[in-house]
């Protein structure tokens, strides 16, 4: 339980990134996140692997009840989400973000001013209108950013299912 709740707390703590987004430049925010996300999902994958291993060890019977199967499945889903983020989605997003920020720097956008300011958003809209390459890169980045958010929320939901069964049915460690 400690491992799973630590990971859920860690996921919730990541929401403080919104404060960073609202107080730093666009490129500073992206640079910080490019280091935080691999560490975040690396830790999450390790914690999920430990939780799954200890759960399977504690329930080493070949015949599992429904609630035990649900808990094991929830842990597997959460581990899959963390590993997918770590191995595929985050590196893809960082690569796309790096290319996008290079185009922005070449056009004097994003290095100064708060990332969410209307001025920066206006400059980005203008750049998207005149640069097809940037517009495609921008759309691709936010597509993968959405996939990342979906995987993260799915992992949180899976952990909450596991915690619900563990606490309500007392079927686990």
TrEMBL record:
The chain crosses the membrane at residues 36-58, 70-90, 144-165. It is found in: Membrane. One of its GO terms (cellular component) is membrane. Keywords: Membrane, Transmembrane, Transmembrane helix. Residues 17-101 form the TMEM205-like domain. The keyword Transmembrane applies. It comes from the Eukaryota. InterPro entries: TMEM205-like, Xanthocillin_Biosynth-Assoc. Its main location: membrane. Pfam families: DUF4149 (PF13664). This is Transmembrane protein 205 isoform X4. It comes from Lingula anatina (Brachiopod).
């Amino acid at each position: 339980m400690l491992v799973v709740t630590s990971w859920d707390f860690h996921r919730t703590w990541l929401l403080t990134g919104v404060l960073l987004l609202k107080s730093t430049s666009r490129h500073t925010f992206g640079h910080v996140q490019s280091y935080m996300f691999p560490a975040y999902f690396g830790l999450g994958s390790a914690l999920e692997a430990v939780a799954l291993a200890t759960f399977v060890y504690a329930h080493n019977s070949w015949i599992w009840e429904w609630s035990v199967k649900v808990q094991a499945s929830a842990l597997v889903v959460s581990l899959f989400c963390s590993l997918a983020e770590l191995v595929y989605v985050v590196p893809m997003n960082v690569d796309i973000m790096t290319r996008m920020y290079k185009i922005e720097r070449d056009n004097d956008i994003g290095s100064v001013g708060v990332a969410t300011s209307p001025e920066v958003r206006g400059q980005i809209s203008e750049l998207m209108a005149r640069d097809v390459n940037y517009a495609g890169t921008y759309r691709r980045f936010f597509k993968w950013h959405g996939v990342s958010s979906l995987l993260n929320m799915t992992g949180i939901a899976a952990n909450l299912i596991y915690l619900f069964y563990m606490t309500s049915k007392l079927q686990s460690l």
